[in-house]
Amino acid sequence: MYRTTVIIDGMHCPMCESQVKGLIRKLYPNASLSAAHKKGLLSIEYPFIPSQAEIKKALESGGYQVKSFSTEKFEKKPSLFARLFHSFKTA
């Protein structure tokens, strides 16, 4: 999995967070998204590295300005339910 963090200018409220996530969800419907308007951050977790050009174009169409991108590879840890289920399965 890859986590792309986008620093955005123009998010002022929780509604802006929702709008930003909606713009990206159109591009990557299965991505895990989180946004923080106070910090101006959008986090995209996806199995592939998302296109910076596509993200920038989508966000700018919504009136937001992209300041920077950073992408890192990470291993997604199994959820609590998955760990519990696995422990019952192996017992």
UniProtKB/TrEMBL annotation:
Q: What protein is this chain from?
A: Heavy-metal-associated domain-containing protein
> Where does the source fall among the domains of life?
Bacteria
Q: Which PROSITE patterns match?
A: HMA_2
> HMA domain location, by residue?
2-67
Picking any one GO molecular function of the record gives: metal ion binding
Q: Which organism is it from?
A: Parasutterella muris
Output the Pfam families linked to this UniProt entry.
HMA
Q: Which SUPFAM superfamilies match?
A: HMA, heavy metal-associated domain
